[in-house]
Amino acid sequence: MKAVVEWQGDVCFEAESGTGHKILMDGPPDHGGRNRGARPMETVLMGLGGCSSFDVVHILGKARQDVTACRCELSAERAEDEIPAVFTKIHLHFVIAGHGLKENHVKRAVELSAEKYCSAAIMLSRGGVEVTHSYSIES
């Protein structure tokens, strides 16, 4: 896996993945940015949500659950008054919608993502971040 990050001036950077997809990262005005893109740490958090959501939807599909929507709501805490201001806690809450979803399948999908499949969650937790998960089901 490869990526390239290129400075765009001030505190703005454009990142391009090895597959050719681009995102813009920028800082807030009080740090020299113009707020044109997500902050770099926000992209880490969004990547975690995407990685884990992919797993949950895939696992539920293999369990023949009729999923119509999946939303992952993330909240994170960072070390205060420290450099680097690393994540200390991250919570992922999955809101799963579908037809006839079985709670035991949803619970198991979230657990499997957290404990076995989500590379981002496992990497962060091994690095000392407290990563927790919850879920709710909407019909």
UniProtKB/TrEMBL annotation:
<protein>
    <recommendedName>
        <fullName>OsmC family protein</fullName>
    </recommendedName>
</protein>
<dbReference type="InterPro" id="IPR015946">
    <property type="entry name" value="KH_dom-like_a/b"/>
</dbReference>
<dbReference type="InterPro" id="IPR036102">
    <property type="entry name" value="OsmC/Ohrsf"/>
</dbReference>
<dbReference type="Pfam" id="PF02566">
    <property type="entry name" value="OsmC"/>
</dbReference>
<dbReference type="InterPro" id="IPR003718">
    <property type="entry name" value="OsmC/Ohr_fam"/>
</dbReference>
